[in-house]
Design a protein that fits this description.
alpha+beta; 39% helix
Length: 732
């Protein structure tokens, strides 16, 4: 007969066992769910970057007002447009309906022959050789909590046209650049002359009156017909295209044309020239529908235009190119009404549309590039909505070499911000991934030998009492905050290594020689069995002595072999640059942080080898070292491999040490004397400063996703190996 009290106790224990099992299972499932949630959240932030751009027509109507459209413009949100007409009128209108808001007659002294626009600045070239500059603005107010725009015309060079060509010849093409105090105007005349004028502009702080003073005016004769011109913002180059695909680059100085000219021969007729934002890149639209990007590059001691990339979508002649006001994107229109949206850095054609089905002769972006307004040869206006949030991102930009503005060749570059609005964002993940692997590689070179050999001695050769002290002490080191290690590396270790660089490399020679000498001397010590298992403790003062000797020899070695400075010798003779915070410092300090992880797992694997295997090997006459290399190591090799992978995963995901000890320079150089920037350190530095849901923000989350997958795969693989190891030895 069963004892009721025992049955109750049994039922309680069974209930507790089931409860513990369910609790542990729910905890494990919760961890998996949390990891999956992190993964899917990262995907949620990253995926929108790779969604295609979209352009759709929102409205189409007869151009408001009379005359032909010469130039278009939009306010920031695209609700109000502006139209400059051949009749000398400036018409502001609603973009959704074409309803006229304001019609301003400029009362020009002569008819308009050409128009150029630079953001919201419009230059009107007149038939009498003069130029009128007009800037349109929209004053924003909220009467009655209603957003109200008031169109305003401003005359930054005065209301009277400036005489550009003193002979009074009609201007056929024109371009203008305006800074705070300097104005440059470049034009061509109908009698085939190139004219450039430079003006000094001053505005009174009291009255607001503007005074314009001519600094220089020069001209250059030209043979043949000119199709398009462009003037750089620095007023140092004047580009002109002519027949037979010729592109001319005239050099300018403060006095105008300086006599230097370069000629480039393209395969097709150039129908349009347009400078990208910032003026460093020139877009050349051609009659075969191709748009080529040319860039000023240092070459042979000077600068010249170099072909960078091209964009081909249609086979019709390019009729207009409109560049974005805040990014390196642009829209291209052709003679058949095809409109394509492109981005220069990523070399992508993002979207296309054709609702005009005829020649498109004018286009303009809104400042945020969310709207595009177009005028065609039938005097119709088409208004488009554009969804194009992340044009900077492509596979090439993220993982391949890209030729950026200001660089002499294509390269892997990470530079997410700058002090200028014309900055071209550089989002290559290659330097960050390379830096992550580099930091982990040098840390593992330092950590793996020390940790593995230390684990071998601790598990199989060390005295039990000493092992009970050493193993917990090393494992406690793993709890040391990495920010403390990074702080020590940046403020103490990096300067110390730089000062004693020769001593560091001398130590690599002295240390093994010193160990061999100690081993030879150990053979003469009587009664060595009394110290069996405590040899490591006896080596501690030897190691400290050898380190002191290496440090003391640092200065004499530099004086004797390296002219007093190893760092200068490497730079002058070997061509190796030395950064104070470099891979050597990271390898030392991050290796120190990784050693406890590798040591602990490897020591457990080595110590867990069944003793009957060890005793059997010793009984067959093998030495303890032969037993270690032939029996223990093969049996523990899965665990050792797991330890190395866990340490590598820890090194890859390390943040604070590399943040404080590397210099954070995103360069791809395997030199041990150069710094790097890792994925983790880059996230710590830039995520707090990134604009939420911007391209920069989402690319950083992509970097986090890559780091997550990298560490997850390595750690998971290591855990699988450990699990198989446990299963294997549980059957012995």
């Amino acid at each position: 007969m069963k004892n009721p009290s025992l049955q109750v106790r049994y039922n309680r224990r069974a209930f507790k066992d089931r409860l513990a099992r369910y609790f542990v299972a729910s905890g494990g499932i919760s961890v998996i769910i949390a990891i999956l949630l992190i993964f899917f959240y990262l995907l949620y932030v990253v995926i929108p970057m790779f969604e295609p751009a979209e352009i759709r027509e929102s409205a189409s109507y007869r151009a408001p007002g009379d005359g032909k459209t010469l130039q278009l413009g939009l306010e920031e949100q695209g609700t109000v447009g502006v139209r400059f007409t051949s009749e000398g009128h400036v018409i502001f209108f609603k973009t959704d309906s074409g309803k006229i808001i304001r019609d301003e007659n400029l009362h020009l002294p002569a008819s308009i022959t050409s128009v150029a626009a630079n953001l919201n600045l419009v230059a009107l070239a007149l038939e009498n050789g003069s130029v009128l500059a007009i800037r349109y603005k929209f004053d924003l107010s909220y009467p009655g909590d209603v957003r109200t725009l008031t169109p305003v015309l401003d005359y930054p060079l005065g209301k009277d046209p400036l005489v550009l060509d003193e002979s009074g010849a009609a201007l056929s093409h024109i371009d203008i650049q305006l800074s705070d105090d300097v104005v440059g105007v470049a034009a061509t005349t109908n009698d085939n002359r190139l004219v450039f004028a430079r003006y000094q502009r001053e505005e009174s702080f009291i009255s607001g009156d503007i005074s314009i003073e001519l600094e220089s005016r020069s001209e250059q004769p030209f043979q043949g017909e000119i199709y398009a011109v462009a003037l750089t913002p620095g007023l140092d180059h004047f580009y002109a295209s002519a027949e037979n695909g010729r592109l001319f680059d005239y050099s300018l100085d403060e006095d105008g044309f300086d006599g230097k000219k370069r000629t480039y021969n393209l395969e097709h007729k150039i129908t349009r020239l347009k400078l990208l934002l910032g003026g460093s890149s020139l877009l050349a639209g051609m009659e075969n529908g191709e748009v080529q990007q040319w860039m000023s590059v240092r070459k042979d001691g000077g600068r010249e235009l170099v072909y960078i990339r091209n964009f081909v979508k249609n086979r019709q002649a390019v009729s207009y190119i409109a560049t974005e006001q805040q990014r390196k994107g642009f829209a291209v229109a052709d003679n058949r009404g095809n409109i394509t949206i492109n981005y220069s850095t990523s070399q992508r054609t993002l979207a296309s549309i054709n609702t005009a089905n005829t020649l498109v002769d004018q286009m303009a972006w809104s400042p945020r590039a969310q709207n595009l307004i177009v005028s065609d040869s039938n005097n119709l206006v088409h208004f488009y909505k554009v969804d194009n949030e992340y044009p900077e991102v492509s596979w090439d930009v993220l993982w391949e070499k890209v030729w950026y503005e200001g660089y002499d060749e294509a390269d892997y570059i990470w530079q997410s911000s700058a002090s200028t609005n014309e900055f071209e964002a550089k989002f290559s993940l290659m330097p960050l991934s390379f830096g992550t692997i580099k930091a982990a590689f040098y840390a593992m070179i330092f950590a793996v030998p020390i940790a593995i050999f230390g684990a071998m001695f601790t598990a199989q050769f060390m005295a039990p009492r000493m092992r009970q002290t050493v193993k917990p002490a090393i494992e406690i080191m793993e709890a040391l905050p990495t920010v403390i290690l990074g702080f020590l590396a940046g403020l103490w270790l990096a300067p110390y290594v730089e000062t004693h660089l020769a001593g560091i490399f001398t130590l690599l020679i002295i240390l093994p020689v010193g160990f061999l000498l100690c081993a030879w001397l150990w053979g003469f010590v009587p009664n060595k069995s009394a110290f069996e298992g405590w040899e490591a403790a006896l080596l501690v003062p030897v190691v400290l002595l050898l380190i002191w000797i290496s440090t003391a020899l640092s200065s004499p070695v530099e004086t004797l072999f390296f002219n007093g400075s190893l760092r200068n010798y490497m730079s002058n003779v070997w061509g190796l640059d030395y950064d104070q915070r470099n891979a050597l410092v990271v390898g030392l300090i991050m290796g120190f942080a990784v050693i406890p992880t590798i040591f602990s797992i490897a020591e457990d694997a080595l110590f867990g080898v069944p003793q009957h295997l060890v005793r059997g090997s010793l009984a067959l006459g093998a030495t303890r070292w032969q037993t270690m290399t032939s029996v223990v190591l093969p049996a523990a090799s899965p665990g050792i491999f797991s330890a190395v992978m866990m340490g590598f995963g820890r090194a890859v995901g390390e943040t604070m040490i590399v943040l404080m000890a590397t210099g954070n320079t995103p360069v791809m150089d395997m030199s041990i004397f150069q710094g790097m920037r890792t994925l983790a350190a880059n996230l710590a530095v830039e995520v707090p400063e990134a604009e939420v849901f911007s391209t920069h923000y989402r690319v950083l989350f992509l970097a986090a996703l890559i780091l997550f997958l990298f560490t997850f795969v390595f750690n998971t693989l290591a855990e699988l190996i450990r699990h198989r190891l446990r299963q294997r030895y549980s059957e012995l």
